[in-house]
Amino acid sequence: MKELLGAGLDLEYSVSATTRARRPHEADGRDYFFLGRDEFSRRIEAGDFVEWAEVHGELYGTLRSETERRLMSGKNVLLDIDVQGGREVRKAYPDGVFIFVLPPSLSSLEERLRGRGTDPDERIRLRLDNALREINLGSEYDYAVVNDDLPSALRRVASIIVAETSRVSRRLPMKST
After folding, report:
1. What pTM does this model have?
2. Are 135 and 65 in contact (CB under 8 A)?
3. Domain 2-165 belongs to what architecture?
4. Are strands 76-78 and 58-63 parallel, antiparallel or unpaired?
5. Which of 79, 100, 104, 171 is nearest to 142 (CA)?
6. Nearest 10 degrees: CA dihedral of 42, 47, 51, 56?
């Protein structure tokens, strides 16, 4: 995400909200909006989320205000969400572009998760089970990119974004003077 945001593609990241505990290197409002379960539930009831889901035992969601603010300023909005969230966002923004980023294999995903050193074994097993289920739903997306080599995957995703923002149907009508 960081590399993609720094690639000069006029993208802005929509920070998600979550009920999970903040990790030591994370900052509220930069990495996530860290909310208690009661606050998260209140905001669900208020319709504050474009999408939300329970994932790995925690609640995650995309705040409508964060997405709308960026879209209204003419920016492309980058979301980092799971398949459940992708389905809901597609309903709200049917013209969006949906890119499914895949690990090269489940064993490489497990390696990455264990390498972080932030999750216990049972959480890693849950994440791997969920990943397998989600991979099987990848056909619901417009594009799929395997993150086997970060620079290569970054180029592929950037190419998709450039192509999609260049579509004639996405260009603003030209005004005659």
Report:
1. 0.81
2. no
3. 3-Layer(aba) Sandwich (3.40)
4. unpaired
5. 100
6. 10
